[in-house]
Amino acid sequence: MTLTPGTRFGPYEVLAPIGAGGMGEVYRAADTRLGRHVAVKVLPAAVSADETRLRRFQLEARAASALNHPNILAVYDIGVHGGKPYLVTELLEGQTLAQHLGTRPLPVAGALDIALQIADGLAAAHAKGIAHRDLKPDNIFVTTGGRAKILDFGLARQLPSFGVAGQTDVPTRDAAPGTEQGAILGTVGYMSPEQARGEPADQRSDIFSFGCILYEMLGGRRAFARESAVETLNAILKDDPLPLAGSWAPVLESLANIVSRCLAKRPEARFDSGADLVVALRRLPRAASPDETRGQPAERSLVVLPFSDLSPQRDSEYFSDGLTEEVIGGLARIGSLRVISRTTAMSLKQTPKSVPALARELNVHYVLEGSVRRAGNNLRISAQLVDSSSDTQVWSERFSGTLDDVFDIQERVARAIAEALEVKLTPSEDRRMAERPITSIQVYDCYLKARSAFNNYSPAGLREAERLLREGLTVAGENALLLAGLGRVHFEYVGACLAGEEGLDEAEAFARRALALDAECGPALLTLGIAQHLRGNLAETVHLLKRALQADPSDADTLWWLAWIGAWNTGRAREAMQAARRLVDVNPGSPLSYWAVACAHFVEGRFDEALAVLGEEPADVWQRWGVGLILASAGRRADAIAVLEPVEPEEGASLAWDYALLLKFALKGERHRFLEVLRPEFVRMAELDACTAVFLVMDYSVLGDTDAALDWLEKAVPRGYFNYPFLSTHDRCTAPLRGHPRFERLLDVIKQKWEAFATSGPRS
Full-prediction pTM beyond 0.70? Predict the structure, then answer.
């Protein structure tokens, strides 16, 4: 190393060496102007004297600086110090993909996550007409937060079809114009056949290199590894890699097909660009990683269809629905089963679709159907398990008895399914399945009716649910399930603007009473967690939600809140995406699941990906607002207005109309109409909920009311909003606030909270 700590050049002060390589020495440095740490790459004197290496160094800077994408290393500055050229980039913490890989394959889900990020970065480069030409694991960096970054554009090339006649400053027409024609550029083992032959290479060469990397992530070995460089080059030209199959790489067939297409010998047989590759990866069927389940995931996945009410008066639908949800809840506690959530399952009531069609749509192997006949105190329940691949019955049974037998019947159904699928229960799963949270059939009837009323999501339904739960408590005394239900009702009072802080106090009090009786009560953990979210205690929130998910791994509500809080409040988009993808997996029938995925893209500034998830035709007002918000944040004001234009004020409409109308009138600059639709109830909600407050920050900023926007941001921060990346960089709605002294002071506080949370994380 030639620079010592304390060395100053320009505004940069060297802090410590990071590493050295053939193309330079890298240091951690402080940018004294902007108060941030950066990486500085310095070209040694011996190297800078080499005209070819100097040109590549300069072209690396020009190529990377022409790109602005979260999956490409950001270049900040370039200069010369003491005769030595230097390059200033963002400082990354983590390791290269080569170090991350080692010699073992990655889980499929992890490999796909990194692959999508690399493909996104390539798509951005190719869209600018830049081919990387040296893509390899050493040139991919994986940060401690899971972000993949493409490095080293020293061999990049401006694609001829993108060149502009007469333009002299197009980045990287060739990495080394001075080299003789036919020279091989690239890295042996990852270069394309055309590179190996010394022929011109375009963006499709990057696709081949990408295929080599994806193969290695999935297989745990290089695609064309041989004993010598010459033999490796010969394999690239003539051989196909071993198939991605067998015990060492159990991958999805469709993913293996993508790898094969990337590794086609002829460029025209590959994907044409990174953008096409992204589309193909995003269209992959949902499936769990083999690391995450025992055996083949599809063999242990099922949906429980709503049990039919065959009672003589057809007056026991609430009872049959409750039985369905209890069976789902019992099966969902089995960790090795993938069980479709209650939300999606209940949306399939009286569906005309066949069992095979439903199974294909939900990506499950089995379907459980059933019926309930209740006459007085007598009860008859029938159930059958169907293998969707052959549309044949695997198991069926009829249970007869009285209402007092319903708890035993629920347990027997769940255990019979586990036995039919050859699932071995853990001691904890066996214990939880045998538990009887409610023992009185009278109290159970109150509980089921209360749940049915709650699911109406109306003020009247909430009040009826509270009445029934309190009625149950008068009979049963202290009961964890009933108390947890009351806690959730009071939390929803807050969300429906029927209560303020007092509703939050009640929600927490009931949840804590429930947990005092049962520390593993999932509904109580969820309610307490989301109440803490409104208090601004985000570490405690995430801790409680993860405990709730352990109690019920398929609970859509818990997964939704984990995804939402990770995306919006804390700026932990990678964790949010993990929860959102799991949510889609267990709750594919709900638009909210896809909104969660879109949000994880959205808050990272990946607006096109977010819009692609939601689709171009909003199905309802919630989705219309979501699409409008993304378009506005991306700076596409006219498009956002066009999407929101059909939304008009309606008497008694839900909060969705408030969000949509406020954004619409803000974008249109109609301040008087904006204030007309800003209801007192909505203001009270924003004073409690940090995310709602931030939406008002965005609205007021677009409207041009800086003081009001900053007032609401001051309210949002103590309530648990510290999504620094979104607010400081990605969102264009709040861009007019940047540079304002008051905003910058708030942003400093947000950054400190964000960094502290990212460092410590939620408590375990």
Answer: no
